[in-house]
UniProtKB/TrEMBL annotation:
This is Response regulator. Residues 4-120 form the Response regulatory domain. Gene3D superfamilies: 3.40.50.2300. InterPro entries: CheY-like_superfamily (IPR011006), NreC/VraR/RcsB-like_REC (IPR058245), Sig_transdc_resp-reg_C-effctor (IPR016032), Sig_transdc_resp-reg_receiver (IPR001789), Tscrpt_reg_LuxR_C (IPR000792), WalR-like (IPR039420). Signal peptide: none annotated. Keywords: DNA-binding, Phosphoprotein, Transcription, Transcription regulation. SUPFAM superfamilies: C-terminal effector domain of the bipartite response regulators (SSF46894), CheY-like (SSF52172). The modification 4-aspartylphosphate is found at residue 55. SMART domains: HTH_LUXR (SM00421), REC (SM00448). It holds the Pfam family GerE. It comes from Streptomyces fildesensis. It comes from the Bacteria. Residues 149-214 form the HTH luxR-type domain.
Length: 220
């Protein structure tokens, strides 16, 4: 199955570099390019891609507003945000807007391609070294999503609670399987059920929920 990708970045060289390396991968296809947030939103409406690789800083409508419009609309496209380590405030905004992943612009191109595949597969990804700091700060900072009081969640089994805690710690499905002595397929099933029960769009939202429920704290 080919993953259809829109590249949204106001720097032509960035788009060109990604497009050229993606041309060597049969499972990835660039179906559109945008230099502004407005163009990205329009492309999603017109051609329904699987993933939008979204720059944050663009003229006119920025990547945060474009992400919000894309994820709030009927399209099923997932947004993978391009960022830098000194743009935390902007990343928080993209997280609230519904982005499914964050990658850093100076990552190897092949790592960015791997992130596209992860996001397209319905998972979520945040660049290594950012995950726990980003989510923990996001949950506690002014303007973040309203903090939920720690509470039992109806319909969540004890095993699912364990899985949610591990998700909050940034564990992959393989690591969850190892930690709980279950198969990867079983771990994936638990994650899917948690998404359905908690109304989570993706793994990023599950991580946020784990922090909001105080299953995971900065002391972990």
């Amino acid at each position: 199955m080919t993953i259809r990708v829109v590249l949204a970045d106001d720097q032509p060289l960035v788009r060109s570099g990604l497009r050229m390396i993606m041309a060597d991968h049969l499972d990835l296809e660039v179906v559109g390019e945008a230099a502004t947030g407005i163009e990205a939103v329009q492309l999603v409406q017109d051609i329904s891609p699987d993933v939008v690789v979204m720059d944050i800083r663009m003229p006119g409508m920025d990547g945060i507003e474009a992400t919000r419009l894309i994820t709030a609309g009927p399209a099923t496209a997932r947004v993978l945000v391009l960022t830098t380590f000194d743009e935390d405030d902007l990343v928080y905004g993209a997280l609230r807007a519904g982005a499914s992943g964050f990658v850093v612009k100076d990552m190897a191109l092949n790592d960015i391609l791997a992130a596209i595949r992860v996001v397209a597969g319905g998972d979520a990804l945040i660049a290594p070294g950012v995950t726990r700091r980003l989510i923990a700060d996001f949950v506690g900072r002014p303007g973040a999503a309203p903090k939920r009081s720690p509470r039992p969640v109806e319909g969540i089994t004890e095993r699912e609670r364990e899985v949610l805690t591990l998700i909050g710690l940034g564990r992959t499905n393989s690591e969850i399987a190892d930690d709980l002595f279950i198969t990867v397929a079983t771990a994936k099933s638990h994650v899917s059920r948690l998404m359905a029960k908690l109304g989570a769009r993706d793994r990023v939202q599950l991580v946020i929920t784990a922090y909001e429920m105080e299953l995971v704290t900065l002391s972990h």
